[in-house]
Design brief:
This protein is of the alpha/beta class. It contains 11 helices and 10 strands. The protein binds coenzyme A.
Length: 262
């Protein structure tokens, strides 16, 4: 039987936690781990009550210390290396395309593929002890799971190029100042902080939440006119949806809204 390196657990109503559990290799991503992450994402998405997915790493030392360097060292042809990079890129893209709101609970090192995974998620909450970076340059390579593209979009091309070409990691606080993480908390408060935000999000109208994610992420790619058109279209659909009706009515009746995802 294959090793099991990923767990998925419902931690609260509507909130699931995906944990990468390969602590002895600092949760490094090999092909099996990537496959297991994808299978866990499939399971999380298959649950109609699921709203928020928290992704974290096992232990206190690492979120994910990168793609598996041993696996990369064994690759001996360009086609295989391309397939590995595209495998990771496709998987991380799926988190962006998911209707689930995703959150990285960065419990330690988020390096290389670990930072690339975190950057493909919607929110990043980091322990004070976390270190984030793209150290691939020290191995004679560059990021391959989306790092050059997402880091640049998050922190701007100057900072991104510095981090990628120097390989130097930043502290959680530095990452926050750069806009690379959203919240920094003491390590022992990390999961509770994630749950607090997850709870807030899980209580919102699901279709509105999914539309907000789709439109904000899409804004990176669309010309403004096109994005505005898509926004107005989504707004109009949501305004007449059951949850849109319920939300506005509940406000006027001074009561809490009960959303149903319709
Ligand atoms: N791939 C494979 N194995 C990894 C790994 C990775 N990306 N990162 C860490 N490991 C393994 C180490 O080889 C070591 O295994 P061993 O106990 O069998 O020797 C184990 O995890 C613990 O790591 P170690 O380096 O001993 O811990 P440390 O506290 O001295 O250093 C780091 C921690 C994160 C600074 C260091 O592990 C590191 O630099 N990792 C690589 C980061 C990287 O370059 N990522 C991008 C990869 S493309």
């Amino acid at each position: 039987m294959n090793d099991v390196w990923v767990s998925l657990e419902q931690v609260e109503p509507g909130v699931q936690r995906l944990r990468i559990e390969r602590e002895r290799a600092l949760n490094a991503l090999n092909a099996d781990v990537l496959d297991q992450i994808e299978a866990a994402l499939d399971r999380a998405e298959a649950d109609p009550a699921s709203r928020v997915l928290i992704v974290t790493g096992q232990g206190t030392k690492a979120f994910v210390a990168g793609a598996d360097i041993e696996a990369i060292s064994r690759v001996d042809n360009e086609a295989a290396a391309l397939a590995f990079a595209e495998r990771g890129q496709r998987l991380f893209r799926r988190f962006e395309e998911s209707a689930l709101i995703t959150m990285a609970a960065i419990n330690g090192y988020a390096l290389g593929g670990g930072l690339e995974l975190a950057m493909a998620l919607d929110f990043r909450i980091a322990a004070q002890t976390a270190r984030l970076g793209q150290p691939e340059i020290n191995l004679g390579i560059i990021p391959g799971f989306g790092g050059t593209q997402r880091l640049s979009r998050l922190v701007g091309p100057g900072q991104a190029l510095w981090m990628i070409s120097s390989g130097e990691p930043v502290t959680a606080e530095e990452a926050k100042a750069l806009g690379l993480v959203d919240v920094v908390v003491p390590a022992d408060a990390l999961m509770e902080e994630c749950l607090r935000h997850a709870r807030t999000l899980a209580a919102k109208a699901p279709l509105a939440l999914a539309a907000a994610k789709r439109l904000v992420l899409g804004s990176r790619d669309w010309p403004l006119e096109n994005g505005l058109h898509r926004e107005a279209e989504a707004f109009s659909q949501l305004a007449v949806s059951a949850d849109g009706r319920e939300g506005t009515q509940a406000f006027l009746e001074k009561r809490a809204a009960k959303f149903q995802g319709r």
